[in-house]
């Protein structure tokens, strides 16, 4: 099945892309997708943390994805 992935902040910079379409397995969760993505795309990403959104709404890592979903990986924002 196909989903659209949107990337923000350092994830966009690391990958050189703002978004991409991905072919994923049926039943994959947003957390599983994040784990696969960070291992294959971002060096030294073991401890990177992000928030997830699916179709414009924040989602928990166990949220199962469906055909055509738009998934966003959103790094935490710090300031000071």
Radius of gyration: 12 Å
Major β-sheet profile: 5 strands, mixed
Outline, from the CA principal axes?
A: globular
Strand pairing plus helix content: what structural class?
alpha+beta
Measured by DSSP, the beta-strand proportion falls in 25-35%
If you had to describe this structure to a student in words, what would you say it looks like?
- There is one protein chain.
- By secondary structure, the chain is an alpha+beta fold.
- Helices cover 24% and strands 29% of the residues.
- The protein has 2 helices and 5 strands, in the order E-H-E-H-E-E-E.
- The protein has helices spanning 9-15, 30-41, and strands at residues 2-7, 19-23, 51-54, 57-59, 70-74.
- The longest helix is centred in the middle third of the chain and has 12 residues, at 30-41.
- A hairpin with a 2-residue loop joins strand 3 and strand 4.
- A 5-stranded mixed β-sheet has the order 2-1-5-3-4.
């Amino acid at each position: 099945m196909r989903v659209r992935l949107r990337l923000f902040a350092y994830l966009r910079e690391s990958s050189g892309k703002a978004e991409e379409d991905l072919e994923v397995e049926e039943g994959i969760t947003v957390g599983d997708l994040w784990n696969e993505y960070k291992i294959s795309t971002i060096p030294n990403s073991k401890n990177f943390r992000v928030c997830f959104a699916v179709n414009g709404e924040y989602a928990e890592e166990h949220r199962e994805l469906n055909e055509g979903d738009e998934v966003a990986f959103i790094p935490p924002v710090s300031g000071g």
